[in-house]
Design a protein that fits this description.
The chain is mostly beta strands and 196 residues long. It contains no helices and 18 strands. The strands form 3 sheets. Strands 1-4-7-10-13-16 form a 6-stranded parallel sheet, with no helix packed on it. It has a 6-stranded parallel sheet with strand order 2-5-8-11-14-17, with no helix packed on it. The chain has a 6-stranded parallel sheet with strand order 3-6-9-12-15-18, with no helix packed on it. The N and C termini lie far apart (31 Å).
Length: 196
Amino acid sequence: SVIDGISKYQTLVVKNPTAAPLVVDRMAFVRSVMNGLCKTGAGNLTIESCLFMTNGLRASSSAGGTGSGTDGKGIRVSSASGATVTVRDSIFRANRQTASDAGGPGAALMLSGCTKAVVENCGFFGNSLPLLVSGTGATSGNPLGDIFTTGSAIYSSVPTTVAGCRFSGNICIVRSYSISGGAIWFAAGSTGSVVS
């Protein structure tokens, strides 16, 4: 099944105060205005054999509603206390900002505010950096000005295991912030994370 946000709407927003587990299997999320799948609240989340493609048109959090934000163009998990997030056998392709909003392009997968995460056998291709955002950064000579990102494919602030994944063509710009960049960014709180 395909959920198409037609670059105007969020494709799936899950607010889960009752801590019910959620499994999403064999779905495609395309052209979401902010995040392909946005999850807040407790309850484990399992994503299997899904496609997240061309999500994240805008970088203004007000465009996507509650829980949405710049990071996590494909999947955004935040304020999910007690949850374990598993993403398996899924593809993240060309999730990036293409409108000239302020804010960072953001990673394809953002993991924050949950207990731990596992990302297995996934592919991350061509995520994060817009091909062109007009009308920004004109004085700097760069189409994006000082916009930057921390982790073009994955950003995590929780202990995360990344295993058997492929990364290709994921780009982020490093301009004013020397600590930014990379395909995977493990932020504070991600101690114990493993990539294999």
